[in-house]
Design a protein that fits this description.
Structural class of chain A: mainly beta
GO cellular component, one term (chain B): anaphase-promoting complex
Structural class of chain B: mainly alpha
Number of helices of chain B: 28
Strand order of the largest sheet of chain B: 4-6-5
Shape of chain A: elongated
Keywords (chain B): Cell cycle, Cell division, Mitosis, Ubl conjugation pathway
Shape of chain B: elongated
Strand content of chain A: 15-25%
Distance between the termini of chain A: 54 Å
Pfam family, one (chain B): Cullin_AB
Number of helices of chain A: 1
Oligomer: heterodimer
GO molecular function (chain B): ubiquitin protein ligase binding
Helix content of chain A: under 10%
Order of helices and strands of chain A: EEEH
CATH superfamily of chain A: Zinc/RING finger domain, C3HC4 (zinc finger)
CATH topology of chain A: Herpes Virus-1
Largest sheet of chain A: 2 strands, antiparallel
Radius of gyration of chain B: 48 Å
Family (chain B): Belongs to the cullin family.
Number of strands of chain B: 9
Strand content of chain B: 5-15%
Chain lengths: ~100, ~750
Amino acid sequence: MKVKIKKWHAIAQWRWDTGHNDPDDDGEGDVCGICRVPFEGCCPTCKMPGEDCPLIWGECTHVFHMHCLLQWIGTASSKQQCPMDRRPWVTAERKVDANNPR
Amino acid sequence: MTNQALYSQISAKWNNSFNRLNRGEPGISGLLSFSQAWRTATAFLYPQDLNDPSSYKEYSIQDVRASFDTLSKSKMLPLLMENFLENMRQQQYLVERDIQKYMTEYEAAGSAEAIGRLLFRLVDWYKAWSPIPELGTTLLSAYTLAFQTYIYSSFPPSFSRGFKDLIASTFDLVNASCPPPWALPSEPQASTSAAPPRPDLPLWTACETLGLLDRYESLIASVCYEYIEAHVLNTCAKKWDDSMLVCLREWMAEKVVPWMVMPYARGARNAEEARSMLQGVGSRFDYHVCKTLCDLRTQEIFDIIIDYPDSQPALQDLKECLARVDQRSELVTTLRKANKKRLLHPGADTKDILTQYVSIIRCLRLIDPPGVLLYKVADPIRKYLRERPDTIRCIVASLVGDGESGDSLVDENEPIQPLQQKQADDFADANWEPEPIDAGPNFRTNRPTDVISTLVSIYDSKDLFVKELQVLLAQRLLAVTDGNYERERRNIEILKIRFGEAALQVCEVMLRDMTDSRRIDQHVQQQKPMPLHPTIVSRHFWPPLQTSSFNMPGQFKEIQDAYAKEFHIFKPDKKLHWLPHLGTISLEIELQDRTINAEVPPLEAAIIELFSSKDTWDVAELAAEMKVDKTAAIKALLTWMDLGVLKEEDVNHYKLLEVAEEAPAGTKTVSRPAVVIEEVSAVLTVQRQQAEQMKVYWNFIEGMLTNLGALSLQRIQGMLKFASGYDRTIEQLAEFMEAARREGLVTVKDGMWKLHR
């Protein structure tokens, strides 16, 4: 017997490749440390998830919604530190989407 | 001394009386002429027997007049009157005899004609006994009163019934070309020997003469009421497509008003006078027309609403009637009762209830624009709908114009408008009007008038709708394979207007996922053509999808991995997470002697893929390999058995048929319910899940019926209760058995089920 696939309509979900989570994780996934919304959701100011509300990776391995972090960095009290570990925030360039300015 | 005084007193009185009677004539000649006059007068006035013509005597009118003159001078007229009335009382038995005669005739024949003749006969009596008008009105009116008293006291109880019949017959009499013989007085007077102006005139005149019009006024009116009622019921019942009130008023003008002229405006000398005399009674009858029609339409209201919009004229009638007759509370009570009896019961479809509710909204808005009636009627319906589990689904389905469910609740022509929220009272409104007088305490004038807003307001929050909408949209989008979801997009745009952009943001994301998936797929296919075309969804924005832990085997896995890799290259920040059990796969299976095409869910495809590596599999083995439960595995196997690719060699032991096998007719196929290949939707409905599970119990039922012969439904249910996890109601079992019967697996006779062999 030979099984030949003519057409396959499948359903899949996309996930951010944060490098942390287990690929088979079916749970709610990680949340942004600033807005507490899942990474696959979007930050409070955005309406569309995905490319419109990307993530930002820090050298410290912490990940946030980009908009959340930029807003945090923009405030004076942030002292340009990562909100999780208070180390100076350095964006891990490698991970940022090439289309985004930062 | 005392005697002397007494004597003189008596003597004075005597002289006084004597002088009165003697009238100062010489000697006693005055006295003699007085007694002569008394005799003539009493004889003249004596009530004669009509049936005995011999008792008639001719009197010279001069003599009679002279006699009365004499009596009048002697001031003896009151005494004469007393004497006359006393004589009348004695002669009354003559009249009574006649009354009895005619009444017996009436009771025997039941015909109102006898009553008519009786009236004319009584008039004859009345005229025969009547004193001449010269005697003055005092005597005449005393006579009339006495005569009427006598005849009224002589009427038997059945007279009023007979009189009613007689009046009822006058409706036909008005239009008769010439009066029937009984409706004419027995002795037509010379002056009216030509046909009377109206056939019913003599009868009414007779009635008036006898004073029956005043005495039986309410009875006459009731006859007319009944006449109106009969006509309204005859002409208007179940006739809703025409405005009947206009016809009825025309009918009143043509038929009833001419009749009314006789009893109510006979004395009118011209049309103007007649009109003013008829005004009061006419408006009473017009009121009755409205009331009767109103009652009728109130009784019919439920069916009228079903017929809407064809029944619009009837509703207009009802509106007009309600303005005249205050029957609003009756309408509410009746409609509520009808709704309870005919609509709000488990037998009615939610869809039907909603349709009727929408019709009720439209109809009652027509009758009562402020919506007080609607508010009162709608309350139980809304309460009931709230308890139904599928109400929201039905409303949402009709919101998005579900094609299969036929006519939508929403009128296509109605403008799409945002949902109306309860508005705060505007205290500065110059056009403010108080709420209608019969409005309940919770009533609000400015309730939403839009049908959809009303439906949505059944529930306190519109979030429930949005959620249901999301599920519905997800089901549809995931079922889309050809990339054509324009209809869904259009629906969402329409719904955005209603629910607001923010509420439907999630749906917007879902639609964008669809577009993105297509774009990504196009890119991936350019890099590496593959048969796999996934829909990639943003989790958190879709309703919870079924989860499952199995992995696709063999070539499926390879394709998945290849696709995921291409995806990761295209979108370096993202990766794919497959939901392997969702979607559909179109397969071509090449066997030694045949090729089979099938479109199956992924689990089925996975199972057959496993068979390509090994010819025979055990159910337990398969389930373990796939990490699914046995039920799911068996179901997938059944699909392939139906397609003739697999065969159950042994219990729970399946074999691939490289060469098609003639199925031994009637033996193997009977051993299981036929499985219809169904498209498995991503979001399973509860009902379908249950049906699927029910198939497992078929084995139990089959065993039971094999070993124990025919069994009743109760018995089967009782036995199944022993099976672990069985939680069906007997109704569900009955449904299942019925389905099995349709498949030809079982037969039922007198409530006993047995296997069909």
